Amino acid sequence: xxxxxxxxxxxxxxxxxxxxxxxxxxxxxxxxxxxxxxxxxxxxxxxxxxxxxxxxxxxxxxxxxxxxxxxxxxxxxxxxxxxxxxxxxxxxxxxxxxxxxxxxxxxxxxxxxxxxxxxxxxxxxxxxxxxxxxxxxxxxxxxxxxxxxxxxxxxxxxxxxxxxxxxxxxxxxxxxxxxxxxxxxxxxxxxxxxxxxxxxxxxxxxxxxxxxxxxxxxxxxxxxxxxxxxxxxxxxxxxxxxxxxxxxxxxxxxxxxxxxxxxxxxxxxxxxxxxxxxxxxxxxxxxxxxxxxxxxxxxxxxxxxxxxxxxxxxxxxxxxxxxxxxxxxxxxxxxxxxxxxxxxxxxxxxxxxxxxxxxxxxxxxxxxxxxxxxxxxxxxxxxxxxxxxxxxxxxxxxxxxxxxxxxxxxxxxxxxxxxxxxxxxxxxxxxxxxxxxxxxxxxxxxxxxxxxxxxxxxxxxxxxxxxxxxxxxxxxxxxxxxxxxxxxxxxxxxxxxxxxxxxxxxxxxxxxxxxxxxxxxxxxxxxxxxxxxxxxxxxxxxxxxxxxxxxxxxxxxxxxxxxxxxxxxxxxxxxxxxxxxxxxxxxxxxxxxxxxxxxxxxxxxxxxxxxxxxxxxxxxxxxxxxxxxxxxxxxxxxxxxxxxxxxxxxxxxxxxxxxxxxxxxxxxxxxxxxxxxxxxxxxxxxxxxxxxxxxxxxxxxxxxxxxxxxxxxxxxxxxxxxxxxxxxxxxxxxxxxxxxxxxx
Length: 744
Fold this sequence. Notes:
The structure is a single chain. By secondary structure, the chain is α/β, with parallel strands linked by helices. The protein has 27 helices and 11 strands. Among the domains are: 1-200, Growth Hormone, Chain: A, CATH 1.20.1250; 521-730, Vaccinia Virus protein VP39 (Rossmann fold, 3-Layer(aba) Sandwich). The chain has helices at residues 5-34, 38-66, 68-80, 102-113, 115-133, 145-168, 171-195, 211-214, 225-253, 261-274, 283-287, 289-304, 310-334, 343-368, 374-390, 397-416, 422-439, 443-464, 508-511, 523-530, 567-571, 576-579, 591-595, 623-632, 651-660, 689-699, 730-734, and strands at 469-476, 479-486, 489-494, 497-503, 537-541, 557-562, 583-588, 603-608, 633-642, 664-670, 680-686. Strand 1 (469-476) and strand 2 (479-486) form a beta hairpin.
């Protein structure tokens, strides 16, 4: 039987679902128009978080000023307001304004397009909880259960988008569905007004909840700053940890598409499981939390050294994140406020902590550190919150010794064990279990230990690395880049993805030799050296270390299009660009935007080399993008796509897109020919039958798109793409196939 409280459940769930959906929909709309820059998504995230915080602040002020009885009717007018804009009207045309800074432009566009609707939806979680708290329903004794329902809506909104809405509907249909659901949301609110009555119109804003609900919990109004600061720190720590694990997974472990979904799901589930009448909280997390902390520190450093298989690292971080987030949310929930009037203030503090944590990880840490140390910072904040709860304690000599043991072990372990060793791993696990068990008895000492580990990490990370001696490290919003020496080669890596190699030698001929995915035996190398195609002017999307410039001859020109403006900081360690005989030009912008600055029919060959990592720039291979490339390629010219990728198979997509734009598509691959001569996969598109026949007959490229056994997907456009359909999850499973856990 449908209870009256279920209307509030539906309202809270639907608002959170719509909130997450519109974030993903609008970001997908923005990418082709503003370029595939991280700043586009990063700016969207900051806007969403800022709008959410404003929504919490507005609700806190409005409910206190008007009282919940009157405000719930005023809020109906508030949620009808977006009908004057979107979703009442269609989304306005979105286009970049070249005269404005990118972040400012995106903020303005978001405010004008979905700002009103997003702001309204951000208020619903607190409004429904306050409404329930002041209602005559028996469930009013615990309004916090609605927060769990809200996070369940966010969870479903997150998972359903890439695996359902994005898979089966293009953007126009997605927007139409969202508008229909918003109308359903309004209807649900109106029904809730009639179904859920107010218990006592004279109740002041500060009336208390029943004692059966709160037991011995202290009142917020009677508490000092310590408990409020604890809420802030735990909220910030939870957000930092989930974002940090996302960064570790996508930068350091496996640049696999959609892997970022896993940490966010864990984060949302932790709220859903803890903010309940009967929290589904495993008691072992609290009882063995010292093991969780020690294990988390250790797995961080093991990941830096690539000690464990990829899949094992992913599972280990997921388990650690689950335990850490559950602990943070449980601590927040157990100390929730007593007064009804304090509910909005409580959520305002929690939201502020989350906003501060996300800003720290998204905008500040990438500019200060060259590794994912934000994970250790999150652990330190958890310890700091625990220290506030326990109170400051004196750190004795024994605890200082434990802190020293921890530091020495972190420094000494990689000198003794360069690869996986079951004895070494067992010793480290046992040592950290012992150290953190005793440190956990003194929370001040625990905090100092984690602060020391956090301070050490930037200096010892290189000791753990097994991919060579680091010459230069750099981190920005696009990733973590390492220039290192391995044997007689200089290499550039982004996480565990190799972007380029060059020989270290005094022999100028050998030093200028192209390596990695671009050596002379690769499909692209054979095309550029064959003499069958004109190479007077070449465009290259993706700079890497500039290897393709090695093919440039006198009188030729090569234009490089690079999204990351900081690339010269680390590419200067390589000298392919300096040694090239061709005239080189550089455009630091999104390729589709920058290409518009070049004349039509400008390039003999256009090379698209931007699909090797996690953040696959889908907008660079859509049918609209290919049509734009065609405009800038000469008659008889080629568009070469580098599609080597461990985690996704883009060949079927490009064959399908080629058919949609009436292009001729062929593919070619090469096998590994040496430690510096790597395997690679390439595709070529052309509208010239002669060029296609030359590739097939003279260079052995193949038209696999004509193979009846190849199942071609629906063409990808700026309004439709389907990453899950081309993902290769088996790679993650196979990563442990050769793992020998008892090797020593």
